[in-house]
């Protein structure tokens, strides 16, 4: 466990029953109805904290607004609805704003660069302008909904400059930001033409949280070298006339909720079906969005190496790879899809038998209630991203296991989760032979060793679960001094 998280973990042990005093306002690119079952970590964490304070959740509606005159310039009003004690406020975007802010700058600049993929970035200047415009629009529409004492929690790379825009409009509330994706090292960050503006914008927040110590180090190095930031203490940096609190707050899952799903009727039915279907085989599982950061082609290559160098796995080991569709309107995803179709077709063609196919590749979204049973029936999970902020699938796999006969996690050292989950078999996903060796080791590991490793992993994901994550972050934000230079703006 990382130093910061340990320190923060201790803080939580002493403060976890202290409720938030202020109303919580969450801002993220998209919102969700907090009364419905939440799919991802963000929705789970946000739902619980919002319900505690009867808060407000603000974001894009997911709709594109066509103006009445047929042009696409219209800027919609805010739609407000209540969901239990939570208020949801959403706005539509014009086509131009959607294409530049969301498809362009967020998905075609920030996502690839923050995942170290400079080769996939498209630095079109119209994207940056749209990104700034939509962040200004969010600030403008959010400001009238705010109360003086609200705590504002902004999520992820789509909204980096939001606090700076709010400050420029006079907002003095405490504002925190959490980056769900990795923070790249300074020289990679510097490839973004607007890198100085982006990083300076972060100093308009009171607290900035990262997934891992590595991310925090990259950010500190960037601001120390590029902005001559002064380190006031391990978690306080001063630059641009502002003091910023920073920390690593690794996101977790709701372990009990996932276990409950595994123990539900549907969870058990799925487990029994998978176990019976594969009773003569050993099952390996991968569940990811079809995204180039997830290392899917490298994973299929590693699995191919396994069948080549450890032939005892032929006619036996089966990889179920779920790759849920994602961002299909971005070009790089189309290439990846074709690459996966071809790699999986080739491995099945080269190794498959009449009664055994090595890879079952499913390019569809699978119902969440089916995942725990699938994880539990699997001997090994392959979580091998080339770069990942955290990776929640790694934690879900651990939570779903039978502690008396657990499966083994093969985890990329480049996932944020690797800082916490040291008892997994850590691999370099670019090294496909090394990954194949680790898979073989996982498949042949003794029961005792599996039990010991699983116990340690389960304890850690329990201790640092999603409730720990949100309450630790929000407590740190609430503890921030109201910022002396808050209204001066940094943009
Ligand atoms: C970002 C960061 C960080 C996946 N396929 C299906 C499905 N899933 C679920 C998984 C898991 C979630 O989606 C994916 O979470 P990840 O953490 O793997 O990844 P990102 O979506 O890239 O999220 C990441 C995360 O934010 C949180 O901070 O960990 O690093 O990139 O819960 O189970 N769920 C269903 N069907 C699928 O086909 N129902």
TrEMBL record:
<protein>
    <recommendedName>
        <fullName>Trehalose-6-phosphate synthase</fullName>
        <ecNumber>2.4.1.15</ecNumber>
    </recommendedName>
</protein>
<dbReference type="Pfam" id="PF00982">
    <property type="entry name" value="Glyco_transf_20"/>
</dbReference>
<dbReference type="InterPro" id="IPR012766">
    <property type="entry name" value="Trehalose_OtsA"/>
</dbReference>
<dbReference type="InterPro" id="IPR001830">
    <property type="entry name" value="Glyco_trans_20"/>
</dbReference>
<comment type="pathway">
    <text>Glycan biosynthesis; trehalose biosynthesis.</text>
</comment>
<keyword id="KW-0328">Glycosyltransferase</keyword>
<keyword id="KW-0808">Transferase</keyword>
<comment type="subunit">
    <text>Homotetramer.</text>
</comment>
<comment type="function">
    <text>Probably involved in the osmoprotection via the biosynthesis of trehalose. Catalyzes the transfer of glucose from UDP-alpha-D-glucose (UDP-Glc) to D-glucose 6-phosphate (Glc-6-P) to form trehalose-6-phosphate. Acts with retention of the anomeric configuration of the UDP-sugar donor.</text>
</comment>
<dbReference type="GO" id="GO:0003825">
    <property type="term" value="F:alpha,alpha-trehalose-phosphate synthase (UDP-forming) activity"/>
</dbReference>
<comment type="similarity">
    <text>Belongs to the glycosyltransferase 20 family.</text>
</comment>
